[in-house]
Input
Amino acid sequence: MHDSPLHLVANIILSLSIILICAKLGGEFFERILKMPPVLGELIAGIIIGPFALGGIIIGGFGPLFKIPLDSHTGNDSIIPVDYSLYFLAQLGAVILLFEAGLETNKKQFLKYLKPASAVAIGGVVLPFVLGVFATVLTGFASFNSLMELLPALFIGSIMTATSVGITARVLGDMGKLDSEEGVTILAGAVVDDVLGILILAIIVAIETTGVVSVGGTTLIAVKAISFWFVLTFLGGLVAPWISNFFNKFKGAGVRVCLSLSLAFVAAGVAELYFGLAMIIGSYSLGLAMSPTQIKEEIEESLQKINFFLVPVFFCVIGMQVDLGAIFAGNASLFLTISFVVILTLFAIFSKFIGCGIPALLFGFNRLGAWRIAVGMLPRGEVALIIAGIGLVSGVIDNQVFGVAVIMTIITTVIAPILLSPAFKSGKSGLR
Output
């Protein structure tokens, strides 16, 4: 009886209720008491109730609230330390959040600032990657003796390049700044950042698998990723009015919203499965393509109500994946490990500030605008966690290095909303 499908579903529903209650209470506390973005409360609530903290405690005859699932292939703990059903709901929230962000973005503004956004993305990839490699070698967790011994540093470098646009989109959306010059530049920069990050990761995985770099394979990945994004964003915009007119023929309640969401899910799934891009890039690009259409406002209003439920789950589940104790699991000394955490985190913050801020200054933004863009590109979030998980599963990095990467990720993810909110409070233009 206890193994029945309904019993499993009931467990997931109870887990979901705990996540929603804690996420909303955490968000309320941070927003009303601490005067900070609610996303911070949702993230920290996830850390507290996650399987590595209170959620992993066994009380009496009751098992842990959030048990780490087993990997069906290896029989060991999964690299995703939450139930796959909850992880699915969280990722669904991210896809819908970015679809809404795309709808709210002014497409003309997006195209106008695509050039500075590309410069911001390149600076926000190159400098973090170099400093990530340097920090790993400097603290002795990798070396230049051979290409294989350098692999952990290359993986850390790729983790450092990540930008979690979901965090920034949530904060900017709450402040009504998604359509600002800086907001559009950040979102466009994050799209380009994701394409570049995928290429770097593909090269590193190829080195780990074959020991050499395949120029042809890397070029193919680049062409596929850029082509998909171009077709979805630009050519998709040409057919979007036809899609809008077709959807308007349906008069049933919620039909147009469901059909639009279905297209967003198709774009997200195809981006991930066939073109190596993150799902959120697919949904954002489709939202951007449909942003000038007639049904935009109707879809947007409905999505906001859906996101009241799903988006807090997304951020809380991100927090639940954080294992702060992982840094003590390796063979390196505590002093060396803590040094690695401090150096890597400082480099992670510095590299985005300089790597993204200076290109923004060079392309017409003033100091305030460049600061807003640099802060908006700071959080690593779930993107970095996914890359770190790939490195851990492949054996390139161990639990200790993984833990260091996770701590760097959570610090940058938490700092960004703290700095981003006051950066936009002045209301002044960020352009010279």
Q: What stands out?
A: The radius of gyration is 21 Å.
